[in-house]
Structures are given as structure tokens and as C-alpha cells.
What does this fold into?
Amino acid sequence: MTTEFNKQLIKALCGSVVLTLAACSSPQKAPASADVAVSNSAVANAVSAGAADLAPMELMAAREKMMRANQALAAKDYALARELSAQAEVDAKLAQSKSTSAKANAAADALNADLRLLRVEVERANRPQ
It folds into this structure.
């Protein structure tokens, strides 16, 4: 019965060693360089979409979080760097969406103004003289 107990003990120890090694190799401890790079790209896309003029608050929040994410990355606080870069990416996408929406609304307003002018011209042309 002692050998059976020893076998179970060895299996339990091996299992705990495997779990410990898996926890140590967690992606939270790996550098967050890729996450920060993706967020930097999202901020750049927002800037190119005109967010600096059309969604400045959201862009400023994204840039501030990117700065803090880069600082956390330099300090090897990878979990914080990941969290901040994810938040920065969301802020940048919001800024990009707001600026795209503002441009679309401006284009729709211009189109509506052109249509009103066209209706006036058509009515004027169809009036009896």
C-alpha cells in the first residue's frame, strides 16, 4: 500500500509542478510590446482620420494612456502596459469613429443643402411665366 501511496504522491507533485510552471509562463509576464504597437497604430489612424480637430478630447486621452503604457513597458510592468494600451486603443478608435462620423454628417449636410438649392431651381423653372 505504501508504493501505491508513493505513486499517487508523485503524480500529485508532478501535477503541481506543471501548474506552477504554467502559471510562471503566463503571458501577463511577457513583454507587452505588440499590444503597445497595436495601440500606437490605432492612435496614428485616429490622427489621420482627423481626430485632432474633430475629437480632440478622445485623442488626448488615447495619447496620455499610450504615454503611460510606454512608461509601464519601460518599467517592465507588462500587465499595466497591456491594460493601458488596450484602453488607449479603445479611446483612439472612439476618436476615429467620432471624426469619421463628423465628416459624414458634414457631407450629408452639404448634400442636403445642394438638394434644397436644386429644388428651388426646379420650382423656379417650372413656374408659369
Notes: Residues 11 and 112 are 75 Å apart (CA to CA). Confidence is low (pLDDT under 50) at residues 17-23. The chain has one domain: 28-126.
